[in-house]
Amino acid sequence: MSGPFRQFPLDGGSTADLYLLRYDEDGRLRSPVAEQEIKERLAGVGDVFLFSHGWNNIFAQALDRYRSFIGGFIAQRRQFAIPVPPDYRPLLIGVIWPSTSFVMPWEAGPGIAADPEPDGAEARQVEEMLDLVTRSLGPESDPEFVELVDGRAVIDADAALRAAEIVLGALRAEPDPDDGSVPPTAKEFLTVWEALDSGGGATPPADPNDFGVAGDASSGLRAAGGGGFDPRSLLRAATVWRMKARAGEVGARGVGPLVAHILRESGVRLHLVGHSFGAKVVLSALASAAPSRPARSMLLLQAAINRWCFAADVAGTGRPGVHHSIPDLVERPLLTTFSAFDEPLTKAFHLAMRASRQGQPGFAALGDPELYGALGGFGPAGVEGISAVRPAAVPGQERYDLDGGLRVIAVDGGVEIDGRPAIAGHGEVSNPTTWWAMHALTRPD
Fold this sequence. Notes:
The protein contains twelve helices and eleven strands. The protein is α/β, with parallel strands linked by helices.
């Protein structure tokens, strides 16, 4: 895609030009001409905004999200007469990467008990998830796995155990790169699978040692309709694992070299914005760039990544979070939103991403949000002393204090503004609250 894909009018007759860069699933750049043009234009711009979408690879929808955020951001500046730097000449980059064609697996609701409509969106999503998962399997296990789950709404415990063994062996055989935790055994995962079949868990119970399902994972299990396990829950969990890994690969291998070039070869102010798994893209890009100077700002919108990612010590394990160095690679405090109204990240993510209890005394048996929760669902953990939680600021009336020595500011999008949540769902991240957060990071005062 050469040349700017879209131009946004600015005051004074200038424009903010949006370039789109497409990457494949391994992070290989598919838009080399556009990238070269971006590099050639760096000498003439003051600010570069790099955006990464999350759970969405339909080109039109990804583009629509970029246009919505950029258009709202520009309009809000005019509305509140927000100042800009004297050399404000922005260039915009939108990353297009293959995540999935549909919403995040749990965002449309579980739909577990009933058979999917053969021609409906649920059926198409199941087909896509099955294709994604089986492409990660070996030639020996692929036919067996397909026979176990294809076209089935319910499978028995023995079949579920074998299906879990196959998928875990292919997609979760190693410790999680974000927090170093070991993967669950297939038997342990059946307990998680049961919880996913029932729609996930909402708020943790009063007893911190009880997270919903107790007992041995091999006995007394039930699922949709009380008669077995729904294969769609396994596919959804496996899709989360694969997309999370892919986001890291796209960020490190694809976007990272461009970020390194921008920070090494120019003096522009670089602003990074990532939504959902797009947060993983921009985090991995900056980490892999090993920049000679910091980026100017980073805004993470409902990030689908472990909440301990910035910690120097993950839950007392002695392991640092995978992105513990990132706050030091950003000039201004990192802003990251979270919301109690983000159902995928508060009800399902920590179940899909939970690790084994083995060798970790005192860890919860199932889906502990404290340990495995999403940054966008529960806010950051393990960053005491350098972070603070702040309610989402009212646009035009309230400001975030970026000069108090904090490195991470968690913006609570669950608070009400004008009678509704500031961030009312996982995908509702282009609104006055998020534009205002971006202005907080980019305005010169």
